[in-house]
Structures are given as structure tokens and as C-alpha cells.
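Quick one: C-alpha cells for this chain, please?
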Amino acid sequence: MGLKANARGIKQIVKEGDWNCVCVGYVDLGTQHNDYDGKDKRVVMLFWDIPEQRMMYNGKDVPSRISNRYTLSMHEKSNLRKMLEDWVGPMTKEQAANFDLDSLIGQAAELRIVHKEKANGTGPYASVKRVDRARGNPRLPLETTPLRYVTTDGISGNFIYPGPEVPEWIRKIIAVSGEYKAAKKKAAEEGRTIPDVVTMNQSKAVGASGPGGFTVDPEAEPESDQGDDGVQF
């Protein structure tokens, strides 16, 4: 993994190139405002571990990790649908409507990773340019605990607090989601306060949205997607 110096010191960045990876989970970021088109849309973040690239985390040798955001839509023109069909193969409309993100966990893929410069000039970051079927159809073990989180209960619609396995930098994104804002507004109207999603240290509910995992709205409007920095725990 490459080393880049910035104002805060040395930062490890996932190396560029084509790498066999294994999907280790997803986080539903909730409804986020997109400055590019001015619209609000549900967004999911997928995570892959790269066994051939290593890093030290809490004193342990673990695979490097990279993530990417996608609009939570299985519309035929959405970036998520296109990426998944490149990775797992073409889908019928019915298959797309019932696609379960849990099925991706443990699946190998080949990621093309490139370095880009941050718009604020603070240095480069690693970005997922393309996701394909893994070379040689390898069986890559899960070396880290799978990550699953959705923002709302599928039955009640109540906000679900992320557990400690969801990093703070991701909780900061969830903190500006429409779902968390709605939960705070409802609590205020009822004269209650709710925990701060960023600083809270106790999980109220964690995991996929019940049996069958987390499916994606096939009719959600496809929009442009943006990637993330490539270091990530």
C-alpha cells in the first residue's frame, strides 16, 4: 500500500491497479443530499478487502480495505445495476427487483483502483473505477467480520443506530441523512432527546433488515455516483 504525506503526517493509500478483492459488507448511508444535481437520494456504501495489500490495524495484520458509494437503485441505468451486472452477471427485471445485498458478502471481484487528487487540494485518494468478475474465480477468505447496517427498520420505519463496528467517519455521513434528521425532529416534537449518532457508544440495533437481507428499490431514480477515499476502517 502506498504512502503519501499530508499536513497531518503519513497516510496509507491503497495501491493502483487491478486487484482481486472480496466484498465484506455494506452500509446504508440513508437519504443524502447530492450537491451535483441538487436532489436527495438513498445511498449505499460497499466495502471490499484486498488480501494482496496489507495494513496494520489495532496491532493486527489485516487486508487493506476500499469502499465506494452508489445510489441505492436497481434501475437499468443506475451505476449500481451496471456495476453489479459487470460483477455478477446480467439480471432480469425480476432478479434486479429482488436483489439482496447480503448475497455480495464473501463474493470475490476484480477492482480497478486509480488515484485521484482531492478537490480541496489535500492530496490523493484511491478510487474504485471498475468492478468485474475476479480473475481465475478465486475463493478468497473473509479475514475480517462482515459489516452490515441499514438506517431504518423495514417494518416500523424507525431509525436504527449504528453499532461500534461502524467507523466514526461513516457515522458522520449518517448524521446528515434524512432518516436521522427525521428521528431527531420526531423526538423533539415529543419532548425527547436521542443519542448523537456520531459520538454515541452504545448500539441499539445493528445488522441487516431482518431475514432476507437488504434489497434495493428497482424503481429509484438513477443519478451520478461519487467514490470515497480508499483507506477504511
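The chain has four helices and eight strands.
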